[in-house]
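Session log. Operator J.P. requested a structure for one protein chain; no other inputs attached. Running the standard single-chain path with token output.
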Amino acid sequence: RISFRAEPLGATYLYHNSSDERQRILVFDFGGGTLDFTVAEVGAGIAPEILATHGVLVGGDDLDRRLMEHLLKYFGAGAKYKNQPFPYDILDLLLYWQTMPEVSRPEYRDILYDFREKGSNKRAIHALEKLVNNKLGFALFKEIEQVKKALSTNNSAVLSFEHDPIRIKEVITRPLFERLITPAVKKVMAGLDEVLEKAAVSEDDIDIVLRTGGSSLIPVFVDLLTDRFGENKIRQMSPLTSIVGGLAVIAHDDKFQSPVYHERYVNEDGINTIVSEISIESDQSFETHLLRVGANCYSDQDTVFTRIPVTLSRLP
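Structure written below.
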């Protein structure tokens, strides 16, 4: 028997297990890929009640890319050849270490040659070629990540990456980093507004704010939560283990309500779903089939479903 729980509920249930009194909590789960919010009532030995969940497509990796964007000046940003700027599509490929090797494709060869031999910043193009040809992108992003982590406890950190002709040694201050990630901060603020609206609660209705995930340690987000909810409400959970710890608690207890679509799945004897009576206002005959990816849409055509909402999966 396999059951599923949404990842953001992990920290919710972990805290619930240790709370003797009933509290309304907000979980701020900010990891490398996404930011997840959960508003719930927990504790006092009563099963948690999830009031709202919401996700924002902002994570620690996005913050790393903002720092990389700042470093593009070392790899051709701003360079010109015959009054033409260095192509933005090449610079975009540098924002992900996974896509950096694509810059070495044949279609970019002539562009790189022209900017390297006749452009306004030959050194930067040499550095770019070193970066992509020697597959140094991952190493550079690891250095960026270390600087980001250091800025959580220090007001500045030195970003050093030297592989001749790449010579980067730059002091990154916390105010500079916070300016670079301003768009992400705005998305986080909007996400908070959204989840509170979904839960029909205000900041004053929240008793405890639980921070978890590595990116929840970044001071600008700590300050954001403190300013909004008050310092006395903020709690820091283990940033790297609270989610899996909570899911382990759920798996051990396994007493909590399953999603409503748990009942929709077919049994071996045929269709057995929430929807039990189906009729059509037509004189044509019909058969009942289950809605799923890859199933035929019609009995007289080859068209198939390629994508459906998960909550409709296996409905008739």
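Operator note: The mean pLDDT is 88.
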